[in-house]
Amino acid sequence: MKYMITKEECQKAISGVCSRCGGELHPIETVDNADNPTFWCGCESCCHFDNGVSPLVFRIAEALTESGNYPYHHNLPQRTDDEELKKYRISSQNSGNCSIVLQVLNLLEKMKDWPKEKEMENSVLTEIKEFAIKRLQAEYGFCGVVEGPEMVLINSDDGEGKDIKIHIKLESE
Questions:
Q1: What is the DSSP letter of 79?
Q2: pLDDT digits (tens, 9 = 90+) for 91-104
Q3: How many whole angstroms separate alpha carbon 88 and alpha carbon 169?
């Protein structure tokens, strides 16, 4: 019998764990859409065909799902779901979150080649920026910063529902 994908070829394609449940992947004997015998990478725990993701990607995706990030809005876990359906819906969300994590990691890798943003070139404005950031972080615990060579925008909130926005800009007279 000639396999479209051999067991050995399939084994080489496995890279990590199942993107749905984090389980171990194995070559599984099956047939393709043309009814030809083949092997596909799959998880015996959740019956999902998958080449796999790194365990770190799965852990991040699982944490996203647990925190309520559901990429598939049509398949949300429901309180009325029995345990099996709830497990299926959550594993589906894990798989979707794995795709998101992989996209972000690929983007981060590409960003290494992007031109670096210049920091403010005026030393006095740089000192003012650094003071404002330090003060907001000390008082409120956080602040966001967007910076360019001639401007900086610092954003926080006062903890009572009001935004604090500081815009420092170097302009010609």
A1: T
A2: 999 999 999 999 99
A3: 52
